[in-house]
């Protein structure tokens, strides 16, 4: 027999074997012709015999490491054994496979963990960036304008003062309070005063006014501090009218013993100094001629009336009906005109007595408040925009606001729609304060955070957000207001200064989005303007002819 293995050959009787790692092929033969059948077994691969057959070869697979005995029994009773060892290479052994699986599993686990950590790091970074953006938007939205030409002084934590150019001061005083004290017990007196002043506190909060102090029966408040605004004369006069109505209603509802509660209200508008006084119990107070004149208006007024100066009258006359009542001498100041405020103008009033404003009044006041918002936004754009914004800068925002108003008035939109359009135009690029990419999303977030501070309703904010969203490149307008803003935003395409503005946009894109050649830019401009259309009749009348001229010039450059 002989055994043949890779590289080696042995002769052992009449059996030959070919061993290849985990399998073995065995062939046997005999010279005795009478022996035709045999059976075999491989120990320890199998303990049982195979069936009797005339085969003279066998193959076994998946052999493990170690010694084996192959035994053949012929039908004549002869038995022959062949012994051999199987020595597998280490990379073919089962332990190697197990170890490989363990190592590969561990490496795969490490890779998954590294990928997971990297993903977590990226997500954390993105969350952090989004948080920073949201915080910056919220911080910007909550900033307040504190005093025109404001100055700040702090001496030993005792006083901090600021100067304001236009503040409306209101004094309210109960007529004949000394006599009232003589006819009413202290508990009832305090309860009544507390009830009056509690209502007044609610009024000043409602109308965005700052309570200054109460002294006995006198109540003092001021609009336009600490946050500067243009609407404070109207808001303070509204509060004065409602104070008088409350006192008159209180008289009607009270018993006859309390029917002597009567109120005088005096109002004046002008510059003041506002300061925080005290170390432990800090209080706010105001000083200046404006305070003194407001006090004189109160003492010179009549019960049940709101007495204002000529300065205040000029600022509120478009909202209220007033009666002129002559001049009053002011020490060191000469004379000042005085007016009694009768009521809100009939077309601006919700009720027949002219006490409460209607929707038209509110929108009219919002247009004044828009000027405060515009000043705030333009100041931030001027000081906080990133470098390289040659096109999307403060001047562009001012231009879009102006063009929006021109087109909107040409299209005869309502007063409220005009307010919505101008506000969207003002805010549509405010997101550039935060980052260059996806600035529309940031502008929308900015609108949500900022506009409630300026008393825009939820419905108005929703409209403004939708208008900002339509200014994205390639976005189609869905309604009439969106068409107006879309035309205003691209008004420059049909203007004489198109080339200069286009050059600024070219510089900006090269600064932020990589290099674009002038030839590529001209092609892009030509393709864009070729597909562009003005949606409103007013814009087409103003810009269509000149836009076609610009398109012709670009065509020559491209060709």
Key terms:
559 residues, alpha+beta, 8-stranded mixed β-sheet, elongated
- Uncertain runs are 1-13, 147-159
Largest sheet: 8 strands, mixed
The pLDDT mean sits at 83
Helix tally equals: 15
Give the DSSP E fraction (strand runs of 2 or more residues): 15-25%
> For the CA atoms, what is the radius of gyration?
46 Å
Number of strands: 16
Coarse structural class: alpha+beta
Shape: elongated
DSSP helix fraction: 40-55%
The first-to-last residue Cα distance is 93 Å
What is the structure about, briefly put?
The chain is α+β, with helices and mostly antiparallel strands and 559 residues long. It is built from 15 helices and 16 strands. The strands form 3 sheets. Strands 9, 10, 11, 12, 13, 14, 15 and 16 form an 8-stranded mixed sheet that branches.
How does this structure look, described?
There is one protein chain. The chain has 559 residues and is α+β, with helices and mostly antiparallel strands. 47% of the residues lie in helices and 22% in strands. It has helices spanning 94-142, 177-183, 186-206, 232-253, 289-299, 310-316, 359-384, 394-410, 415-427, 439-450, 458-470, 480-489, 498-513, 518-531, 537-558; strands spanning 2-5, 8-10, 15-20, 23-28, 38-43, 57-60, 66-74, 79-86, 159-174, 209-215, 218-223, 263-277, 283-287, 306-309, 320-330, 334-344. The strands form three sheets. Strands 9, 10, 11, 12, 13, 14, 15 and 16 form an eight-stranded mixed sheet that branches. A hairpin with a 2-residue loop joins strand 3 (15-20) and strand 4 (23-28). Helix 3 (186-206) runs antiparallel to helix 4 and helix 8 (394-410) packs antiparallel against helix 9. The longest helix is centred in the N-terminal third of the chain and has 49 residues, at 94-142.
